[in-house]
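Here's what a typical entry looks like (Heme haloperoxidase family profile domain-containing protein):
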Amino acid sequence: MKFTTTLSVTMAIAVASATPFRGAGRPFVSKAAAPPGAPVTTKAGEFSPAGPDDFRGPCPMMNTLANHGFLPHNGRNITRETAIRALGQGINFDPALAGLMWDQAIFINPEPNATFFTLDMLNVHNVLEHDASLSRQDAKFGNNHVFDPMIFAQSAMYFTDKVMTPAHIANAKVQRQLTSKATNPEYRFTDSIENFSLGEIAAPFLVFGDIKARTVDRDTVISFITNEKLPDGFKPQATPVTLQQVGDMVVACKNATNLFTKDAGAAPAPGFPANHKRSVTGFGHGMVF
Ligand code: HEM
Ligand SMILES: [Mg+2]
């Protein structure tokens, strides 16, 4: 798996060079349910779910920031300045990081020299949105941007401890890739998407976790992705989250997707010497060379 700093440091924005957007018609528009009479606008910080005319997309955090009014509640007109302010006020992302993330997403608006995007623009398949999401179905099977409880339940099965490490989320991600590869004839997962995805799985640690220890509380992650809501009493990181921290967390998540183990410390089977080698050809099952 390849990792390039520039791309991987963005949360989910690594495909700027992958697939040029050509204005593939009106993207999907999410119509997340809101209780009758729910307000359609909200003050920064207050939670209010999306109403029928509000745009939402495939990113649980961008939706969350809109639900809390850090981004425009209607999910429209996300300018660079708006994104920097929202990611700063909502989750204490460094302005340089937030600005870079917006820069690498703005091409999603097909207008020349666009100065904003809307959350539903993120829905266009194989531009920023991709297959094997943790909490959304592949576009091939239907809606690619609204939270899907069945898909997310499959992912959350791999969150096997209350305190999550990169291994838990990486296992969930690899499982989603394998499921998609096995069942979706149009499955697509390029190098760029890999980088994009590593940023996504690193993100919950950076927002809700102990960045140094590389841990995050499982219930918080599940609740955030399910409800697109910040936890009650949420306090952002004490110091702004930086590009460097994103890069480090992405590397940790990338390493955690590795399916190999190290031999060191493994007890040999009875009767076999320690550190015996297997046949390199694969035809020597059980034979020691
Ligand atoms: C300008 C800022 C951002 C943009 C444009 C953006 C865009 C996207 C897009 C297009 C996806 C969908 C990819 C897919 O198909 O799964 C996505 C997924 C995701 N994003 Fe963001 N994102 C941004 C910031 C963030 C931040 C700050 C977080 C922090 C928690 C975050 C967390 C996630 C997660 C966890 C996913 C994966 C969801 C899943 O696999 O079901 N994003 N983002
Ligand atoms: Mg997706």
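The longest helix spans residues 166-183.

More examples are in the samples folder.
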